[in-house]
Amino acid sequence: MSDDRAYRILLAYDEEKQRFLARVPELGLETEGENRTAAMVRAEKGIEERIEQAAISGEKLAPPNDTLAIAGPLTLSLVGPVRRELEYRAKMAQVAPELMAAQLLALALGTAPPSRPRAEEPAPNRGPRDGNSRDDRGPPQRQGQPNRGRREGYRPEIDNQADFLAYVRDQEKGRGGGRR
After folding, report:
1. What's the pLDDT at 72?
2. Which domains does the chain show, CATH number per domain?
3. Which conformational region is residue 26 in: left (phi greater than 0), alpha (psi within -120 to 50 degrees), or beta?
4. Which residues pair with 21 in a beta bridge?
5. Tens-digit pLDDT string for the chain (180 aa)
6. To which H or E segment does residue 19 belong?
7. Contact 141, 92 (CB under 8 A)
8. CB-based contacts of 180: which residues, under 8 Å, 6+ apart?
9. Which end of the chain is more exposed for a tag (fewer CB within 10 A), N or C?
10. C-beta of residue 49 within 8 angstroms of C-beta of residue 59
11. Do 141 and 147 touch, CB atoms closer than 8 A?
12. Which pLDDT does position 140 carry in this prediction?
């Protein structure tokens, strides 16, 4: 018999119905409630009822996905431009491309791994903070400019619409720089 605590419950808000929906994909179960708690309670009760029904009828339920064994390492093939971008970002972050790929994938899935290397992974050799180096606090710093929480790739020369449009026109003409 399955453990009802192992089934994953996906919670979402349905704008059209103005209600919360709770789904249990492995069991094909969907419930709703006026708030998060009500939807979750109904989903948990639905799981328990499905397990009880299966026990009585002898039906075999799908196992919770999170209890299934992981087959082994996952190997990905990347097309050239994606691979180059990954290698570039890993180099800028001073981490191995495999670690960068794992972090980006985890961020995309909403399950970010630790941002610092684990004990078994050697930490990258980083020099003193001189205003031009990169560390875990964000993108590279320009000399004399504090980190203002800007994303990597921030371009101050295209900070406003007019400068951005000039930049795009220059890119299209092959000049590449935009206003400075």
Report:
1. 84
2. 4-67 (3.30.160), 76-142 (no CATH), 152-180 (no CATH)
3. alpha
4. 12, 32
5. 445 568 999 999 999 999 999 999 999 999 999 999 999 999 999 999 999 999 999 999 988 888 888 888 888 889 999 999 999 989 988 999 988 888 888 888 877 645 544 444 444 444 444 444 444 444 444 444 454 455 555 566 666 667 767 777 777 777 655 444
6. strand 19-24
7. no
8. 157
9. C
10. no
11. yes
12. 47
Q: Give dist(CA 39, CA 33) in Å, integer.
A: 4
Buried b (16+ CB within 10 A) or exposed e, 55-82: eeeeeebeebeeeeeeeeeeeeeeeeee
CA atoms within 13 A of residue 105's CA, in its CB half-sphere? 10
pTM across the whole model? 0.46
The owner of tokens 């009802």 is 4
Angle between helices 97-109 and 80-93 (to 10 degrees): 100
What is the side-by-side strand order in the sheet with 19-24? 10-14, 19-24, 29-33
Give the DSSP H/E element, type plus range, for residue 178: none
Residue 28 has what pLDDT? Answer: 92
Please identify which residue in the block is written with the tokens 């406003």: 160
- Taking CB atoms within 8 Å and a gap of at least 24, the contacts of 150-159 are 152/89, 152/92
